[in-house]
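Sequence decides. Consider this:

===
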Amino acid sequence: DIVYNDVDAKHLFWDRDHYRLKVIDWGNAVFLEGDESTPQGVSRQSDIYQVGELIYFILTGGGRVDISRTEAATAGEDFRLNFGHEAERISPQMQSIVSRAAHPNRR
């Protein structure tokens, strides 16, 4: 499996002609077999976490996922990101999906 490991808006381009999302700049990508991770801790979950961060950024108008070490150490399955004043306009389902993707113990 290939882990992209650099999910960022500047690397994503929408192809209007073919209605596809194109990903560029594969310089940080790594190939992983099985359940392995790199010595730097890159795993399949890395891309999921980065997508969660990106969606959070978009939904909150530029907010960053900011989780303290204490929060990360105690984060259980019921972990939820704080969407601040944007929470009212973001569905609970979307908040749950983004929170699960950006769970601090699944980086």
Remarks:
- Residues 44-59 form the longest helix (16 residues).
